[in-house]
Amino acid sequence: MSDDHPLRARMKNNLASFEPKLLAQTDLKRASVAVITTLDDTGGDPAFIVTRRAAKLRGHAGQWAFPGGRLDSGETSLEGALRETREELGLTLTADHCLGQLDDYETRSGYAMSAFVFWVSRAQMTPNPDEVAAIHHFEIASLDRPDSPELLPGPSPERPIIRMHVGPVDIHAPTGAILHQFHEVAVKGLTTRVAHFDQPDWAR
């Protein structure tokens, strides 16, 4: 898969026409995640990368997550996503790999989470065992299924809990919400918002 792949061009165009809703003024802590698209681990169809967080982490241990974390002092959201990807996966990306940005997502644990979509032709990765238990590639085509997303009862009818079914696993918000918007906006070219989707109690 090269940089002239039609999916890359389509996602770049879709994200260029999308106006992300950003939490510019907020007292929340700042965090960033990287939604990385690449080849799957067998060199087949385009895929996205999700990690399983290490079991020994103090926060959100064992959960499905995009590479990312809290911003360092003076760091921009994009810089944080690049640094966290390098620290967690051993993968060096630059701003040139970035196709665009999704909405900020407010987590129940007190973060304003920014999400950036990246394209890299080949992703040679070495997980940091202190943070990442495993790296998983899921084909982007696997998001095209009628039972996903699944909306579960939340704290109010206006705030259902979102759960994405991806292969044999279930991925809840915040990762599930960002993944759903990635599919809707970057891949399909829709304007879909996800701020109203909630998380299960155990993911907060």
Would you write up a description of this structure?
- This protein is of the alpha+beta class and 204 residues long.
- The chain has a domain at 6-140: Nucleoside Triphosphate Pyrophosphohydrolase (Alpha-Beta Complex).
- It has three helices and eleven strands.
- It has helices at 6-16, 77-89, 175-187; strands at 29-39, 46-53, 64-65, 68-70, 98-101, 105-106, 111-119, 132-139, 150-152, 161-166, 169-172.
- The strands form two sheets. Strands 1, 2, 3, 4, 5, 6, 7 and 8 form an eight-stranded mixed sheet that branches.
- A hairpin with a 2-residue loop joins strand 10 and strand 11.
- The mean pLDDT is 90.
Outline the secondary-structure elements.
Elements: H1 6-16, E1 29-39, E2 46-53, E3 64-65, E4 68-70, H2 77-89, E5 98-101, E6 105-106, E7 111-119, E8 132-139, E9 150-152, E10 161-166, E11 169-172, H3 175-187
What's the architecture of the domain at 6-140 in CATH terms?
A: Alpha-Beta Complex
CATH superfamily descriptor of the domain at 6-140: Nucleoside Triphosphate Pyrophosphohydrolase
Q: Quick one: CATH class of the domain at 6-140?
A: Alpha Beta
Helix fraction bin: 10-25%
Mind summarizing the main beta sheet?
8 strands, mixed
| CATH topology label of the domain at 6-140 | Nucleoside Triphosphate Pyrophosphohydrolase
Q: Please count the beta strands (DSSP E, at least 2 residues each).
A: 11
> Uncertain segments of ≥5 residues (pLDDT<50)?
none
> Given the helix and strand composition, which structural class is it?
alpha+beta
Provide the succession of SSEs.
Answer: HEEEEHEEEEEEEH
- The gross shape turns out to be globular
Question: Please, how many helices?
Answer: 3
CA radius of gyration is: 16 Å
Mean pLDDT: 90
Strand portion? 25-35%
End-to-end gap: 37 Å
